Amino acid sequence: MQIISISSLKGGVGKTSVTLGLASAARAAGIPTLVVDMDPHGDATTGLGVSQESGVQDLGTLLSHPRRYTLSEHVVPSGWPEPRGAEAGSGRVLDVVRGSSRTSLFERPSTRPRELRRLASLLDTVTRYALVLVDCPPALNGVTRMAWTASSDVLLVAEPSLFSVAGTERTLRALDLFRKEYAQGVRATGVVANRVRPSSTEHQFRLGEMERMFGDRLLPVHLVEQSNWQQIQGAAWPVHAWPGETAAQSSALFDKLLATIHRPQTDRRSARRGS
Ligand SMILES: Nc1ncnc2c1ncn2[C@@H]1O[C@H](COP(=O)(O)OP(=O)(O)O)[C@@H](O)[C@H]1O
Ligand SMILES: [Mg+2]
Fold first, then answer.
1. Could you read off the pLDDT of 174-194 as tens digits, one per residue?
2. Best substitution site from 5, 6, 17, 257 to test ligand 1's pocket, by max atoms within 8 Å of Cβ?
3. Class of the 2-158+227-265 domain?
4. Can you give the residue ranges of every domain in the chain?
5. Which of 16, 207, 217, 267 is 20 to 30 A away from residue 153, measured at CA?
């Protein structure tokens, strides 16, 4: 089971959008996937068509009482319709651990080492999934550190803009320090550029800067600025099921991104030990 945290220090760069795009690609590819919504705003939960009051416990409650609950009893299926071309009831698995403002209880600058393991412990009990996507809040406090402790990979999202590039460099440095101290097995999978306008000279300049700064860590897939992205998210639909050429192009980019970062054989437990 590969566990990927999607992170950035800066808000609004597209963490949730990338999480949802990857979830859509994974579902289209038939990869059993769990989305863990770590952001107190719960945007991924909303985007996956899951109501905040769906009868199961939210992540903040599960993390507050990790011994009281079994994670598999508190996941809900996404409310997304089937992707294009898929048969109805094809048995595809895309589940969600609901986010809620209660997660912000852990949004402190320092979290005790035992607390840092809480998400990892919850995930240790699930076996149904090949991929777990963890949508993180825009900060490097307790919640993100808990997500990194549980992860085999961290994917950073950046926009081709001055502040976002600078923020990504700081996030990479923080991640390197964190790995040395707490979680040597976590890989910095790379940085994905989002909201790229290929015709923009400024964006080309910033992408060049990112290549120099991040080297191989800048992933070869660049996600483009998409005119109807908010409409798709607002409708709580997977991009792979949305009609039209723009959505098809975006779906293809997410397929490529998933193929670049997904390692089917990853066992997080051995990854965490650094083997
Ligand atoms: N590639 C894209 N094209 C167009 N709009 C985008 C794209 N990526 C993100 N957005 C929009 O930008 C806003 C912030 O994205 P979001 O994924 O919520 O960022 P974060 O989770 O990092 O705060 C949202 O309104 C989203 O719809
Ligand atoms: Mg978000």
1. 999 998 888 778 887 899 999
2. 17
3. alpha beta
4. 2-158+227-265
5. 207
